[in-house]
Design brief:
heterodimer, A: mainly alpha, 7 helices, B: alpha+beta
């Protein structure tokens, strides 16, 4: 439970970074989706239940902090997480290129899911959004993919130290 | 207890993981369906989460501003002398412009009285600070550090000194989210200042809008200024932007025009929320003057 809330806090902090620091940089147009990278990392290394719930909550928060009133991310984020879980054993994800390709593909996939869901629920015409596939989705997915190896490395180190601390506290407790 | 009952169900016992996945995804779909159906803004739970998470944004923004401030005040002093000279020249230019503007304001006041404009708009505004941008790249919104406790309500108009910014979309007790005019879901009733041609300003992409339902017969040109029509949540005459492109095809009822918002929405730092907008009568002595025909009252525009 403690671990779950700790990871949720990391997710919130990454989202804060995404909406403040990355949004103020000149590359704001192509800012990487840090929360998606985090969630895909969870998809590789966490169980279905705790990871799925985290993806659900983080998706819910994404919806709250965006101009989207439909709650699309609450659905797409867990779905992407479960899809990542499906392929994690069939995929070598330790190298730079494989990590990049994996996250790039999932970022694109989520973008198409969002468009698909929007076309189903939105009463407004989406023709203004279609150019965003080229102007936002593609470059953003590319940047997200490029950031992935760095962040995966950081998450890996964090995860190892977290496990180590937990092991020590268990040993100290007898 | 409920959890135990769910676990005792045959499908959960046989395929617990698949059952959990279906439950989570179904919950997401049910949430979408509820939100589409109700569209009431934020619920108590949403507002609570906004309250809990927004301080992180606020703290991050303040830290960023502090770091930027240090850089601007101490590190980038190299060009100060040059900038000072340039600013002095600019002040002299602005003083000249200011005199002209004053003259024009006085003349405008005379004309307004002459034309027996009976009603004048009184607006009450609330200053707010932008503490965060949209978490997603598909939508265009900003988070503000003012909420229901300060009198902010859903649908209120948000402006900047340069013009229209957007409308309040979500509110919690101390924070709110504003849907920018560049969001694909935003629509504002507007008129072209020069020709009084009516149109709807819709969001297109980053710092771009388009004019919809602009009749083909209307005279519209590049450089024309677009202002709010007064219908909907915005007071009349607020600057929306400038037309950048006009495309008139050989057929159809409408023409297409693209607009650049007057406010640079990518660099917003402070905004004004119009919390109260009402019409008041001029002093009694002017009431005796023949009453002009009242302008049609604006309806609340909903998307």
């Amino acid at each position: 439970m403690k671990r779950f809330f700790f990871l949720l806090l990391i997710g919130v902090l990454l989202m804060t970074l995404q909406t403040t620091l990355l949004a103020s940089l000149p590359i704001r147009r192509f800012r990487p989706d840090l929360v998606l990278i985090f969630m895909l990392y969870l998809g590789f290394s966490f169980s279905n239940v705790s990871g799925g719930l985290l993806a659900f909550f983080l998706g819910f928060l994404m919806d709250l902090f965006s101009g989207n009133t439909f709650g699309l991310y609450t659905f797409t984020r867990p779905m992407i997480f479960f899809m990542a879980q499906l392929v994690r054993n069939r995929f070598y994800w330790q190298g730079f290129s494989s990590q990049f390709l994996f996250v790039f593909a999932f970022s694109l996939l989520e973008g198409f899911f969002i468009l698909l869901l929007l076309s189903g629920v939105s009463s407004t015409s989406l023709h203004n959004l279609y150019p965003s596939i080229w102007t936002y989705l593609l470059p953003q997915s590319l940047f997200t993919g490029l950031m992935t190896p760095i962040l995966f490395e950081l998450f890996q180190k964090g995860s190892v130290s977290l496990t180590e601390n937990h092991r020590r506290s268990v040993q100290a407790g007898g | 207890m409920t959890l135990m009952r769910i676990r005792a169900l045959p499908p959960f016992r046989r395929h617990p993981v698949s059952f959990f996945i279906v439950i989570v995804l179904l919950s997401g779909l049910i949430l979408i369906s509820l939100r589409v159906k109700e569209r009431q803004g934020v619920t108590y739970f949403d507002a609570l989460l906004l309250e809990v998470c927004s301080p992180f944004q606020k703290a991050a923004t303040h830290t960023l501003e502090a770091v930027q401030g240090v850089f601007q005040k101490y590190v980038f002093l190299i060009h100060t002398q040059e900038e000072n000279e340039m600013l002095k020249r600019r002040i002299a230019e602005l003083q000249g412009e200011n005199h002209q503007t004053k003259e024009m304001t006085i003349a405008n006041e005379r004309f307004r009285r002459l034309l027996q404009f009976r009603d004048t708009l009184v607006t009450r505004t609330l200053a707010a600070e932008v503490i965060g941008q949209d978490a997603s790249s598909w939508f265009k919104s900003v988070s503000l550090n003012k909420g229901e406790r300060d009198g902010v309500q859903r649908g209120m108009a948000v402006i900047a000194p340069e013009g229209v910014v957007g409308q309040v979309l979500k509110t919690s007790s101390s924070y709110s989210t504003v849907l920018l005019i560049t969001d694909y879901n935003s629509a504002i009733d507007a008129i072209v200042q020069r020709t009084r041609a009516k149109a709807i300003v819709e969001g297109k992409e980053e710092n771009r809008c388009q004019l919809k339902y602009l009749l083909r017969t209307e005279d519209v040109a590049v450089g024309d200024v677009v202002v709010t029509s007064g219908l909907g949540n915005f007071p009349k005459g607020l600057l929306v932007g400038e037309i950048q492109e006009v495309e008139k095809k050989g057929y159809g009822v409408f023409q297409y025009a693209e607009l650049v918002p007057s406010v640079d929405l990518t660099r917003l730092e402070e905004v004004l929320i119009i919390t109260e907008s009402s019409t008041v009568s001029l002093p009694p002595q002017e009431e005796k003057v023949e009453k002009p025909r009242k302008a049609p009252s604006g309806g609340r525009k909903k998307k």
